[in-house]
Design goal:
Layout (H helix, E strand, L loop, with lengths): L6 H7 L34 H10 L1 H10 L3 H17 L6 H12 L7 E3 L8 E2 L11 E2 L6 E3 L7 E3 L5 E3 L4 H10 L1 E10 L10 E9 L2 E8 L5 E5 L12 E4 L8 E8 L4 E6 L2 E7 L12 E4 L11 E9 L5 H15 L1
Antiparallel strand pairs: 1-16, 2-3, 3-6, 4-5, 5-16, 6-15, 7-12, 7-16, 8-9, 8-15, 9-10, 10-11, 12-13, 13-14
Helix pairs in contact: 2-5, 4-5
């Protein structure tokens, strides 16, 4: 049977999809029928490696993929087809590698500007996943009180004061979000403590320079709540005069946090485990963001705002996720992490 085309997607694109599973692969995937000519016809020279690169980076190709491959079954079919095609052309890619690329391509319009999944299981860095730009890995100092999850699980536990930060400023990231004038901060964590440093919010995830200068900070207050400081042209340079704070910290409980803001309606919303727990109006735009700040987790850049707990995912988007998006991310993440 032909791969299904979701009418809404097809209509929104306004173009006829041009994707086909290569004929030399269909012998092992009988249910796939030719849709158009050849999958690699979308590629300049038919090279498999280049096609994978284009699949990851070409918005036109991603839209065409999205127009047809709209179910998990079809994603699996495409993955199998690409693995077989790669082998036929002398490349060795695992199904997991190809699957990651397929999923990344199909979800490109919604992907974060930077994503950390804490799946390394060992080592001295948390690798960044970025659609564009240079890597922005977070470096773990020698002797830091941290522990990677074992036995195939993902996560990094921080058991004491340390600083896990990028070694270079997050310049491209700051510029991208500044230009979009919108942001979503997302984190899957497990906090260890309820109360922390008095009157000094502990830093869970921050893009800043020191305790007084930041673009944003997701933190935990000494009152057992979560707080986000966002710097705009309508706030001070610390983003501390107009904040969003709420939710109840539950120690040793898996927790999903999302903060959204955009310059269209200036509404900042904080979500805890899929539900809105606080909102506020934060006027201005992101034109005052500093491109020289660093990304960090578990502390402020000067090491004076330590947070203890486990990290499973942190991400930044250059758009404000909707309440529906937030609930979908919560439901998906809960099924994966719980």
């Amino acid at each position: 049977m032909k791969l299904p085309i979701q009418k809404a997607i097809y209509k929104s694109l306004g173009v006829k999809p041009k994707i086909k599973i290569p004929s030399q692969v269909t012998e092992s995937i009988e249910e796939v029928e030719v849709v158009v000519d050849d999958l690699l016809a979308l590629n300049v020279d038919g090279d498999f490696q280049l096609f994978l690169t284009q699949m990851k980076n070409s918005s036109n190709l991603q839209k065409q993929l999205q127009a047809i491959l709209v179910t998990d079954t079809d994603t699996a079919i495409l993955t199998s087809a690409l693995v077989n095609l790669g082998i036929a052309q002398g490349y060795s890619f695992s199904a997991d590698d190809i699957s990651d690329l397929v999923i990344e391509a199909l979800s490109n319009s919604d992907k974060p500007e930077v994503l950390y999944t804490f799946a390394e299981a060992k080592g001295d860095r948390v690798h960044s996943i970025m659609p564009l730009g240079q890597p922005l890995d977070l470096m773990i100092p020698d002797g830091a009180p941290v522990a990677w999850q074992a036995n195939g699980s993902r996560g990094l536990g921080v058991n004491g004061s340390t600083l896990i930060a990028s070694s270079v400023p997050a310049t491209a990231l700051s510029q991208s979000i500044k230009q979009a004038n919108a942001i979503t901060i997302e984190a899957w964590i497990t906090p260890y403590d309820v109360t922390l440093i008095e009157e000094k919010p502990a830093r869970i995830f921050t893009l800043s320079q020191d305790p007084s200068l930041r673009n944003f900070t997701l933190g935990q207050t000494d009152e057992g709540t979560y707080v986000v400081r966002l710097r705009t042209s309508g706030t001070n340079l610390n983003g501390s005069d107009v904040v969003v704070s709420g939710g109840k910290v539950e120690p040793n409980q898996l927790t999903h946090l999302v903060y959204t803001w955009n310059a269209t309606d200036h509404t900042a919303v904080l979500y805890l485990n899929g539900d809105e727990v606080a909102r506020n109006q934060i006027n201005g735009d992101l034109s005052t963001w500093d491109d020289g700040f660093y990304l960090a987790i578990a502390n402020e850049l000067d090491g004076d705002r330590a947070w203890r707990g486990e990290f499973y995912l942190v991400a930044l988007y250059k758009r404000a996720l909707s309440a529906t998006d937030v609930m979908q991310n919560y439901t998906h993440g809960l099924s994966e992490l719980a």
